[in-house]
Design a protein that fits this description.
With 303 residues, the chain is mainly α. The chain is built from eight helices and three strands; from the N terminus they run H-H-H-H-H-H-H-E-E-H-E.
Length: 303
């Protein structure tokens, strides 16, 4: 029951293509940085490489989720894989925070014990990384605003680009001023930013996975508005949840004033659908009609 609104397929395919380009770019950057980090002895280069590797993994997860989310529903999987992208966002946000904690530990160790670093290699490789990541960031930016999965991939890349900028500045300071401790301070700052960004995404994806009602939807307002429709006596046993970023579902029991016919119920159901879609953006509605039925009439029924 209800109506769903689908986005055009080419948009999804473009997302997939952009992710593949970013994956390939990041594999190249990672390999270059590992070799460069080992040759130059730069921790910030190696930590940047680790970071880039986590980008590759997160981009692959995002790509798989993006592909899965397009699969059709089946008898065993009646919702299809519509949640795959939310799950990917959850995994990527969690890894973002873990990578950040590892970076902080390394930075603190290094700060207490700074080492000489071959700065020319650091400067050139960080430039390569800035360009590669910068390009990927631009590719994914638009989709990151409307899709949690793409946002998680985008955040990995954005923080990585910032990390590379920091490594680049560090390389220059080491080359011209021998300030080797800058390497650690920059790593530490990037890590804090990672935690800050990852936390919000983690929280948002957990809310969806736990079937929480979206923040902007007030259940009491919905109930009040539906109850104002004629013929409706009471709305109870309400569940509102988000399936993914495109779909919000509402299910409820509605008690009617009179013993109406099915065709009359259809007319009222259409009114309810219009009301919740226009006022609250809910695009899937499932109503159980009742008349003179005894039982719990609370808005939220505790099972």
């Amino acid at each position: 029951m209800g109506h769903s609104h689908n986005h055009s397929h080419d948009h999804g395919d473009l997302r997939g293509r952009n992710l593949i380009i970013s994956i390939l770019l990041n594999i190249v950057i990672t390999v270059a940085q590992v070799i460069g980090g080992l040759l130059s002895g730069s921790l910030s280069l190696l930590s940047d490489a680790l970071h880039n590797f986590s980008d590759v993994v997160s981009l692959i997860i995002s790509y798989i989720a993006n592909r899965l989310s397009k699969r059709k529903a089946s008898l065993q999987k009646t919702f299809g894989y519509k949640r795959a992208e939310i799950l990917a966002a959850f995994i990527n946000a969690a890894t973002l925070i873990i990578v950040a904690i590892l970076l902080i530990i390394e930075a603190v160790k290094r700060f207490q014990n700074p080492q000489d670093i071959e700065s020319n290699l650091v400067i050139w490789l960080s430039l390569v990384a800035i360009l590669g990541n910068g390009f990927s960031v631009l590719l994914l930016k638009k989709d990151s605003e409307s899709n949690m999965n793409m946002k998680s991939a985008y955040l990995h890349l954005l923080t990585d680009m910032m990390a590379s900028v920091a490594v680049f500045i560090g390389g220059l300071l080491m080359k011209y001023y021998q300030l080797y401790w800058v390497d650690s301070v920059l790593t530490f700052a990037i890590a804090l930013y990672l935690i800050y960004m990852g936390y919000d995404l983690l929280k948002d994806s957990i809310k969806v996975l736990m079937l929480f009602t979206p923040d902007e939807i007030k259940v009491k307002d919905i109930v009040t508005q539906i109850q104002q429709l004629e013929a409706i006596k009471n709305v109870h046993h309400v569940h509102i949840w988000q399936l993914n970023e495109e779909e919000i579902h509402l299910e409820a029991h509605i008690d009617f004033e009179e013993d109406i016919t099915l065709s009359q119920f259809d007319v009222i159901l259409h009114e309810v659908e219009e009301l919740v879609f226009h006022n609250f953006g809910i695009n899937h509605v499932n109503i159980q009609p009742e008349y003179g039925k005894c039982g719990d009439k609370d808005v939220i029924v505790q099972d």
